[in-house]
Amino acid sequence: MIIDIHGHYTTAPKALEEWRNRQIAGIAHPAGMPKPSELRIGDDELRESIERNQLRLMRERGLDLTIFSPRASFMAHHIGDFQVSSTWAAICNELCHRVSRLFPDHFVPAAMLPQSPGVDPATSIPELVKCVEQYGNVAINLNPDPSGGHWTSPPLTDRHWYPIYEKMVEYDIPAMIHVSTSCNACFHTTGAHYINADTTAFMQLIQGDLFHDFPTLRLVIPHGGGAAPYHWGRYRGLAQVLKKPALREHLLKNVFFDTCVYHQPGIDLLTKVIPVDNILFASEMIGAVRGIDPETGHNFDDTKRYIEATQDLSPEDRHKIYEGNVRRVYPRLDAALKARGR
Amino acid sequence: MIIDIHGHYTTAPKALEEWRNRQIAGIAHPAGMPKPSELRIGDDELRESIERNQLRLMRERGLDLTIFSPRASFMAHHIGDFQVSSTWAAICNELCHRVSRLFPDHFVPAAMLPQSPGVDPATSIPELVKCVEQYGNVAINLNPDPSGGHWTSPPLTDRHWYPIYEKMVEYDIPAMIHVSTSCNACFHTTGAHYINADTTAFMQLIQGDLFHDFPTLRLVIPHGGGAAPYHWGRYRGLAQVLKKPALREHLLKNVFFDTCVYHQPGIDLLTKVIPVDNILFASEMIGAVRGIDPETGHNFDDTKRYIEATQDLSPEDRHKIYEGNVRRVYPRLDAALKARGR
């Protein structure tokens, strides 16, 4: 089985964006604030938006299952207050939940949280509980920068975030560390802010001792770990300068990297540098880079091709990346699959 | 000849840091503000600080010449106002100038600028002119984020920066895009802020059309280009999405990457992905990562070893990286060398 751990619902029916635009307008003009019940999207529309897009590409590429979360760039936690984020997160998570019920063989949900800049992350826990207990979510996306490019929250190793980690440990679910859209003109959202956030999070984890306090906590750094694998020598060296244990001991029991790296040399480096047990298959499809690579004739984000072509992996290694590691890091997914005889 | 294009004066005599601390204290208590003339460092002290450190390592590693600029993390443009930065930049640039006069065969200076958050970059031009015309500087370091991790300046493609570019074109000097220390707790200075800045700058250049306005402008992205080479497929794809020309056409006549990547697989990727004409040898020695890699028994920042060991380079390629490209990108260095018969 091939499991893509990083898919976002980027193709939701237009009504979702229209509702969101009304919500954003309603921040300044509360009389126009729409109710959640005013958003009406039928099952047929959901089905069509998935069948024509993600599911079509999954079938073309031979992917079986996607861990599916709301569109990352639309989380936009910097917009409005906690109530705005809370309503928006509930709507987006419900849609991913419905997709997973319509396509139970192909999509399993992961939740966005109703984060808001300056607001205690503990306020996100009721939504998290609902998504795990009622919607069958197997993971969350945690935004280390709800300000959208101004980086006003403390580092991920700060106790500020501990309420979320405690709940993750209780439910035995991992978090993908994933920012949203950038409202800082310096940072292109998918070309700079995403990759910087991955790099930033990884270095925060080197500096801290988070897994001393949470030995079973698991974090996924997306987009191939940002710059971390390419600069693995720098990070090994900085850990040494900071008198931390070697990275394998310090972080690699708890930190995992996805394969959203859109060319062969990048995947070759990732699989050479990072232990295979820490790599999880992903494409972030349909996401940041839509289009065909003129150098290969295939989609940039068809990451399975790179995994298949890389020289350093045995069939057993590929099985780990596609499925084995995923079942280990996402035990609620493993349990759900086993309950269905998979 | 082997030229290291990225060395900082990180080993200046202690008196420099003491003077700076008095200057910082003087911001709040102007009566205690020290005069530049109160900093006294003799030639013997300068000689010793270099001979015991950079020059010793250059000899051990077989490096001939370093393009030498003030310590990057100490630029700290966010401290004080323009006058504070201006005095500090003048002192630091004068020290590098003196080192280059004491060791004319081994060090050629590059200037820091007296940038200050919210201040017009044109105010840096007098210092730049002095450094080029009187001190023989062959390049500048340009900080895209004088705020130190808050990213309050416009992107590098904004007209805000054009006065600097106009002067660079006039003098035919390149700029290394190099941030300074981070005062944002989210970003470790050398592990996150430096690498993020490289990635951010590269993406800004993709988004803009800077080299349409300045066809001969040359920018160096240090630290192996941040995350850019590892995510080269993403960047090629994003350029395509943004309807820009292919990266070779759009950026690679004007943008260069150094080799400050501290492990073999990273250098292997860099030299595979980036055209050899765009790679410049550098170690950033003595810099961010001091120490011996237990996996190799050699210093992490002994980057010449990786260049020597990588499989994809011919002797002609290595000559380009070590010297040929450098003479082309830094024509004032080439002229200075030729004037000395080198």
Key words describing this protein structure:
homodimer, 6-stranded parallel sheet, 3-stranded parallel sheet, alpha/beta, 342 residues, 45% helix, globular, 15 helices
Structure at a glance:
The structure is a homodimer of 342-residue chains. The first copy, chain A, has 342 residues and is an alpha/beta fold.
Quick one: overall form of chain A? globular
User: What is the subunit arrangement here?
Assistant: homodimer
Helix content of chain A: 40-55%
Strand order of the largest sheet of chain A: 4-5-6-7-8-9
Q: How does the helix and strand content of chain A classify structurally?
A: alpha/beta
The number of E-state strands of chain A comes to: 9
Largest interface: A-B, 59 and 59 residues
Termini Cα gap of chain A: 9 Å
Question: So how many helices of chain A?
Answer: 15
Q: Kindly estimate the percentage of residues of chain A that lie in beta strands according to DSSP.
A: 5-15%
Q: Tell me about the largest β-sheet of chain A.
A: 6 strands, parallel
The whole-angstrom Rg of chain A is: 19 Å
The secondary-structure element order of chain A is EHHHEHHEEHEHEHHEHHEHEHHH
Average of pLDDT of chain A? 98
Low-confidence stretches of chain A: none
